[in-house]
Every structure is written in C-alpha cells, then in structure tokens.
UniProtKB/TrEMBL annotation:
SUPFAM superfamilies for this protein: (Trans)glycosidases (SSF51445), beta-N-acetylhexosaminidase-like domain (SSF55545)
Stored PANTHER family: ALPHA-GLUCURONIDASE A
Name assigned to this protein: Xylan alpha-1,2-glucuronidase
Pfam family for this entry, one: Glyco_hydro_67N
Source organism superkingdom: Bacteria
UniProt subunit comment: Homodimer.
Catalytic activity: Hydrolysis of (1->2)-alpha-D-(4-O-methyl)glucuronosyl links in the main chain of hardwood xylans
Record flagged with keyword Hydrolase: yes
Keywords of this entry: Carbohydrate metabolism, Glycosidase, Hydrolase, Polysaccharide degradation, Signal, Xylan degradation
Length: 674
C-alpha cells in the first residue's frame, strides 16, 4: 500500500542472499548515543528484511561484522580512516580487515553521518550493488536540506493533496504519533536535516507557549535522526500575541519581543533551526508596512536567533498588485540592491522560477545575482500546478533543468547548482528547501509515484549535481522491484512525464493557464478578479496578433535581469530555446518554429503530444502488472486514467480557447476539441 516508501526491505532473491548475508552477519555499534541507537536499529531492521537477522559481535571477532562509529569512538579512531574531508554530515563505507577478519566500517565525523551511511549501505543491498569490497565516501554539498510544510495548525494543508497534516497539533505534545518516527526515518534516509512545521502563511499562534511545547515534542522525536525543526514566523506576531501596537522592526519593543520569543523557544528546543518568513507577499505582513526594508526585517530576526545558532530564512517570493510591473521582475527588483546587507545567518530563499512553480520556468534571475548573500533554493514537491496527486509527473527533470541552468555570472559553468551549493561565491550557509507533498494518506504523498518526488528532492539536496534518471532508477528499484523488465520501462515513463505535462498544460513557454485559485485543470480564459497577475490572460496575452509575454527590452525587459549573455539569448529569437519561447516573446500565430510548423500548428501538436504520452504511460503501466502488487498497481492505473482524461481536457480546452484568437484551422490529422 505504499506506507513503507522506499524503505521496504523485502527479501533479496535466494540466489543473491548468501553473499550479502555473509558480509552483513553482525552489527557492532561503537557507541550508544541516541543517533547510534537508531542507526543500529535501522541497520538491523533493514538487514532482517533483506537478508536475515544479524547477530551482535565486536569487530575483529569474526568475518562479516559491520562496525558503526564516529571519529571519536575508540573502535573507529584506531583505524585511522580519512574522515576529515567528510565534514559534519558525510560518511565513509569501507571494507577492511580487523584482526584479520573481513569487516565493513561505516564511519563519520558525527553519529548522524553514520546513520546516513547505514541508509546508503542498505540502499546498496536494496538496489543489488556488490558490497564485498567497498570503498566509498559521500558528503552533502548543501548544509541545510529542508522540507517546508505548508501545514496549518488546524491540520489543513495549503496546496496539500495527500490528506491532512501529519502533525497532529491537537494531540501533541502528550501523544507523538509513531508515524513521526517513520517520517524522520524516511527523511534521514535522504539526508534531509530540517523541517519547517507550519505554513509560510503563518498564524502567530504557532509561536505561543502551547505550540512551542508541541514543536518541542516533535523536535525530541526527530533529533536522533538529525532533523531540526523550524517555524514559520508571522511578522506581525508582536501585535497579535505580544500585545504591542506595532511590528516595526526598528522599534525597540518589537526587537525585544523577538529576542524574548527566541529565548523562550530555545529554552524548550535547544537546537531549534530558526524562522522561515514570508513577508510583504500576497497580503502577508512585513517590514514594508512600516516603511522598512527586507533587510531591516530579516536582520532583526537574525539578531534574535543568532546567539543561539539559529538562522532566518527570508523568502524572495514577493510581489504586490500595487506594482504595475511584470510580476516576474519583482523578486529581483526588491532584493538585488540589498546584496551584502543581510546578516550572516540570513538566507534568502528563492523559488526556482520567477513566477510560481509552473510546469516549466526559466531559472530565477536572483540566482547568481547576489554573490554577497546566502541564496537558497525553494522547489515545490507538492504538485500545485502539475495535476495534484493524480497526474504522474516525476519532477526530477524539472529540478535538474533548473540546477543545471547556467547563470553565466562568472562565465560558463556558473550553474544554479553552484550558486545553491555555495561553490560559486564561496558561501557556507547553503539551503535547499522543498515544499513538502506529505500528508496523512497511507501512502504519504497522495500517490505512489509522488513518493518519487520527495525522494528525488532529498537526493538533489544532498547533491544538486546528481543525475535524476539514476535517482529514479534507485527509487523504482527500492519502491517496486529490481527486475529490469520493470525498472527500465517505469523509469523511461517517469523521465518523460514532466515534459508531457508541459505539453498538455502549457507548451512552448506558456505559463499560469490553470483554473483560478485551485490551480487544477485548464483555465486559459481566467480574467478579471482582484488582480491581473492572478489571471491566465495576463500571462498568455493571446490576441488576434499572436500570443506570448514580451519580456524582451521591447516589452517588460525582464531579460535584462539576467547576466548579459543569458538575457541577450533569451531576448533573441535566434538564440532562445523554444521551450521558453512564449515566456519571453509575443509572436504572431504564423511565426515559424524550428520544426517548420507555424506557431499555431506547433502549439496544437504539443498539446496532442502530451495526451499521447499519457496514453503511452497507461499502456506501459498495464504491461507492468506482473511486477507490481495488485493494490499499488490498481491505484496507479486508476490515476493514469484520470490523467489521460484530464490531459485531453487540457488539450481541448486550450485549443478551443486559443483558436478564438488564432482563427486558424487545426493542422491536418488533429481531432477537433471534444
Ligand atoms: O503560488 C502561491 C500558492 C500559495 C502559496 C504561495 C507562496 C503559501 O498558490 O498557496 O502560499 O505561492 O509560495 O507563498
């Protein structure tokens, strides 16, 4: 049913079992700390499922012992392993003789690295890699690898499609659901080390004493797994819960409120991660309400948590309807000038694109533009704009496309990944955040395949340069089966699924054509309402003359926010990639695409191609029935049918709507909208 995620630990085939069991016959933890205990327990649990229950035995007393330990544990220290370069969270797994006995050592500088190494070791067996002679090391490239839960205190989840919030605020702190441990295990298996527990559209209540107690209970549960808790802070909390008349960040009473609040939280949660803040965005309060700046607001909070080692993650997702400018430009416009002014423990968290988690967006121009600031990545794992939980869309290629995009700010190779992992500008406080898709559904993520999006996010947060096809393969093997007759077609299907969604929803650089408010299904006709930049017509700009948003210098000039070679390319029809065409250009219906088709014909074909791809996924999945248990197979099959119908709905609705402007027939062989 999917509850076990990728940690199923089902028995290895008899033919391969013996070899693994011989190498993993016993476990020797070098200490008894809380994290070492869970590392040992996980290894035992995994091995018991995969190859048989391991014994307990000290290293060097027999062959096949797995020694778990940190640098300071004597059993590990005497092995003189090269641990230094592994940093705080990295690990090493090595086969070596101890007293002449074949031993596998999983070692790290800190216990948490050992836990990560245990998960890696289990993954090796789960994906049927050899373990007889190991010498591998891995360290995360990003410091804070976090989930952002948009979970409300009443257990509804903003943009959540997998049931209620897993955080049961009513029963906390006295009852901590055992599921919280499985949540921590799953995250630790990926190296995720932080969780923001509440929605960025925050209620001040989350900072009151009862909720701090509840958060502390979760922090206690997550601590052995290396996961710190963070809270979203409502900027106006000094008014709502502090009895003050203002939340002005330069007001001494306001500053004192935040300082006292931070002290109160750290008393309960000594390793509290810090605050995430959405300020002056979509109606949320912020420093601008008092004529102050993002710097004033962020640095005030940074000063409150700084002495405790906390951070402030300040979101750059800001736009205001009073601003007549292109919404895509506003984040950059508001933040760029502040480069170098934010405190050292502030991170500016930037969405992957400049609008809002669309099926495809060019990378956000703030990446690379603020070299003297900590710039973090915010991806959305929950599929707000990509068909919620029913559409099978593997987000690996979307994340990878953004991370591999070249900002060119320091010449070729200045990729977004190198901004995010701090390499480009020598930054140490780095962040990769994902808006979680986790809820109380039995399968956690609303669908079996949406688990892969949680998984790939975590793997990329560890290594933003990783290959998402390889990650999908690992996931498919661990979640379903190692049988290549399953893995190859399933992974191929996943890898093309995002492009298919782009095709049937918003091809050729179109964006934000979804239904109003809920963002599900097509709504290219959406207009009116409180603000232009919440409408589809604002983004498509379709008319008799053509379609697309001119962001070149003749239009909004958003292209000039990118480094000159990148911006010039986006603005140049001869250079811009067709996948971004209508993001940057307004073009006549008869504009010629690379294929030789007119823009109109090409658009129609893209929509249809998306639908056919989903047809293909239905066929592929049907053929994979022999390799998947019946309940999971049936659920995916049902969802793929929904996706098939809705891809058609998207195609038909979009074509019918845009045809009222193009006034052109469909290309030969294309069926009219149903
Ligand atoms: O696009 C919007 C979502 C909002 C969300 C916001 C944000 C949490 O539709 O639901 O609010 O993005 O990222 O702040």
């Amino acid at each position: 049913d999917g509850y076990d995620l990728w940690l199923r630990y089902k028995p290895v085939e008899a033919s391969a079992k013996g070899a693994y069991a011989a190498r993993a016959a016993a476990i020797a933890p070098a200490s008894d700390t809380p994290t070492m205990k869970v590392a040992r327990a996980e290894l035992e649990r995994g091995l018991t499922g995969l190859v048989g229950k391991p014994a307990s035995a000290a290293a060097g007393t027999r062959d096949g012992v797995i020694l778990l330990g940190a640098a300071s544990d004597p059993a590990v220290a005497k092995l003189n392993l090269p641990l230094k370069s592994l940093g705080e969270d990295g690990y090493l797994i090595r086969t070596l003789p101890v007293n002449g006995k074949a031993t596998t050592v999983i070692a790290a500088n800190r216990d948490i690295g050992v836990l990560y190494g245990v998960f890696r070791y289990l993954e090796l067996i789960q994906t049927r890699q050899p373990v007889a002679s190991l010498d591998l090391a891995s360290a995360p490239k990003v410091k804070l690898r976090m989930l952002n839960h948009w979970d409300n205190l009443n257990r509804t989840v903003e943009r959540g499609y997998s049931g209620q919030s897993i955080f049961d605020w009513w029963k906390l702190p006295d009852h901590v659901d055992p599921r919280m441990v499985d949540y921590a295990r799953a995250n630790a298996s990926l190296g995720i080390n932080g969780a923001v527990l509440n929605n960025v559209n925050a209620k001040a209540d989350s900072l009151t004493a009862p909720f701090i107690d509840k958060a502390a209970a979760l922090a206690d549960t997550f601590r052995p797994y290396g996961i710190k808790v963070y809270l979203s802070a409502r900027f106006s909390a000094p008014i709502e819960i502090g009895g003050l008349k203002t939340a002005d960040p330069l007001d001494p009473a306001v500053r004192a409120f935040w300082k006292a609040k931070a002290d109160e939280i750290y008393k309960e949660i000594p390793d509290f991660g810090g605050f995430l803040v959405k300020a002056n965005s979509e109606g949320q309060p912020g420093p601008q309400d008092y004529g102050r700046t993002h710097v004033d607001g962020a640095n005030m909070l940074a000063q409150a948590v700084g002495p405790h080692g906390g951070v402030v993650i300040w979101r750059a997702f800001v736009y205001s309807h009073e601003q007549p400018d292109d919404r895509a430009k506003q984040g950059y416009t508001e933040f760029k000038a502040f480069d170098g002014q934010f405190a050292d423990n502030v991170v500016i968290q930037v969405k992957n694109g400049a609008i809002d988690f669309q099926p495809r967006e060019p990378f956000h121009p703030l990446f690379g533009a603020m070299p003297k600031s900590n710039i973090g990545m915010e991806f959305q794992i929950t599929k707000e704009y990509l068909g919620f939980a029913t559409h099978l869309v593997y987000l690996g290629p979307l994340f990878e496309e953004t991370l591999k995009a070249d900002t060119m700010v320091k010449g070729k190779g200045s990729t977004v990944a190198k901004v995010v992992d701090g390499q480009l500008d020598g930054r140490k406080l780095t962040v990769m955040a994902g808006v979680a898709n986790i809820g109380s559904d039995r399968n956690w993520s609303g669908s079996q395949f949406d688990q892969a999006n949680w998984y790939v996010f975590g793997r990329l947060a560890w290594d933003p340069e990783a290959d998402t096809r390889a990650i999908a393969r690992d996931w498919a093997k661990m979640t379903f089966t190692n049988d290549e007759r399953f893995v190859k077609p399933a992974v191929d299907m996943m890898m093309g699924s995002r492009e298919a969604a782009v095709d049937y929803m918003t091809p050729l650089g179109l964006h934000h054509q979804m239904g109003e408010g809920h963002h599900y299904g097509p709504g290219p006709w959406v207009s009116g309402g409180p603000r232009a930049d919440w409408t589809s017509v604002y983004y498509a700009k379709a008319g008799p003359d053509g379609i697309g948003f001119d962001r070149t210098p003749t239009g909004s000039d958003a292209t000039s926010q990118y480094a000159p070679p990148v911006g010039a390319c986006f603005a140049d029809l001869k250079c811009v990639d067709e996948k971004d065409l209508l993001w940057f250009h307004h073009l006549p219906w008869d504009y010629r695409l690379n294929s030789g088709d007119t823009l109109w014909d090409g658009m129609v074909k893209h929509y249809s191609r998306g639908v056919s791809y989903v047809d293909g996924m239905n066929r592929t999945w049907a053929s994979l029935a022999p390799y998947v248990d019946a309940p999971r197979h049936a659920e995916v099959a049902d969802f793929l049918k929904i996706q098939r119908n809705e891809a058609q709905w998207w195609r038909d609705a979009s074509i019918a709507w845009f045809q009222t402007f193009s006034k052109r027939p469909l290309p030969a062989g294309e069926k009219p909208p149903e």
